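User: Just a sanity check before I run the rest of the batch. Below are the structure tokens for the first item. I only need the designed sequence back.
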């Protein structure tokens, strides 16, 4: 009888572990896209800060993405490094990548060039693309939300 109780307790504990593992997996799958979105928005913001700092120091910006990234990486007259380590870690093959593992698209625009993430669907030009304008829109939505 004692052995049967012990086996029943072990069975209940194992079932609990399986349920807890499944719940954790489902939670991770549900939350992961939002975390990647937030981290990508932070990356875009940090890239924009680096571009603004470079522009503030030099009064001009290189024309191409390759030249801009090189300048931000210290290939400029003062050899000033503008990129934070977390941005540098996202550059692969000379191109920054978002947290969805897609390359950021570069677009010349005024007053500053933009880096654009394809977003969660990893397809450029769709509604879920992320830019620094996404950050501004989210902040405006938050400012005008009830209770503010």
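Assistant: Here's the designed sequence for the first item:
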């Amino acid at each position: 009888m004692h052995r049967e109780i012990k086996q029943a307790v072990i069975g209940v504990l194992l079932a609990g572990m399986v349920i807890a593992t499944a719940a954790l997996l489902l939670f991770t799958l549900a939350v992961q896209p939002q975390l990647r979105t937030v981290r990508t928005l932070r990356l875009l913001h940090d890239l924009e800060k680096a571009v603004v700092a470079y522009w503030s120091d030099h009064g001009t910006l290189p024309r191409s993405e390759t030249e801009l990234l090189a300048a931000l990486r210290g290939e400029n007259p003062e050899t000033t490094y503008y990129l934070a380590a977390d941005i540098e870690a996202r550059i692969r093959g000379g191109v920054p990548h978002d947290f969805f593992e897609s390359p950021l698209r570069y677009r010349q625009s005024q007053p500053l060039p933009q880096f654009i993430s394809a977003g969660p669907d990893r397809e450029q030009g769709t509604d879920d693309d992320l830019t620094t304008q996404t950050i501004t829109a989210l902040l405006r939505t938050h400012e005008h939300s009830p209770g503010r």
